[in-house]
Amino acid sequence: MEIQWFPGHMTKSMRMMEENIALCDGIIFVLDARAAFSCFNEKLLKVFGSKPVVYALNKSDLISKECASLLVKNLQSEGKRVVSLNGTQKRDVANLYNAVTESLKERIESYKKKGIVRPLRVMVAGVPNTGKSTIINSFCGEKRAVTGDKAGVTRGKQWIRLKDIELLDTPGTMPPKFENQYYAKHLAYIGSINDAILDKDGLCLELISELSLKYPNCLCEKYGIENIGEFQPLEIFEIICKKRGFIMRGNEFDYERGAIAILDDFRKGRIGKICLETEKYNEKNN
Known about the structure:
By secondary structure, the protein is of the alpha/beta class. 43% of the residues lie in helices and 13% in strands. It has helices spanning 8-20, 42-48, 65-76, 90-103, 105-114, 132-140, 181-189, 200-214, 216-223, 233-244, 255-267; strands spanning 26-32, 53-58, 81-84, 120-125, 158-161, 165-169, 247-248, 252-253. The strands form two sheets. The chain has a six-stranded mixed β-sheet, sandwiched between helices. The chain has a two-stranded antiparallel sheet with strand order 7-8. It is elongated, with a radius of gyration of 20 Å.
């Protein structure tokens, strides 16, 4: 299953970000902790140039503390400034704010020496559906940015003024082409790619296959499947459909309804605390 998704509005978004990066002092790049390495957009990172970047490892509450710690360690080993957080929690967002101001310490001192009095300007960027707008709303203490559980909710730029910082909310932006389908699948699992262009049945089968290898106990506990190791992914899919009553006339399985339900269970964290990646993709190990 080949996944590619780069709608026309993303070209405009990339251009807008290129035009506005000069106005910004730094960047918050939001990653989904369940598939952090899949969330990197190398083309977008080039736009940032030498601007300080803080990586917000969002939705860390959906993975185990052990995986979150390992992710932070691996990202920091690459020289990245990382904050693990749940974007709806004020304490976590306060830690992110502190990391941003620390990354911009030299810029703040430079402004003071020059007598420049203005808020710091920070671009909030990332692929779709990683929680950028949720983090911004937590910064504000109120709903100022539009949020949603579908890819592509934010379509245009929006400057949001706080007391001493201005945040530029930007649309989620994908790489123009997925060179790595392993990452593309993970982005599809977490809802960063528009479901309308996906083969949901096939995607769900891929997800079940990966989870049956990495998190069999989570599948077993969520769907009540005993001896899960004895079943192939399609058999597991059909067992879940049967248990949920996703059966059509002629006693055929309703794979589409089953796929929608299973993908939703995964995205909402109902299958368990699942981290798909703790390190960069290595073809030998995946």
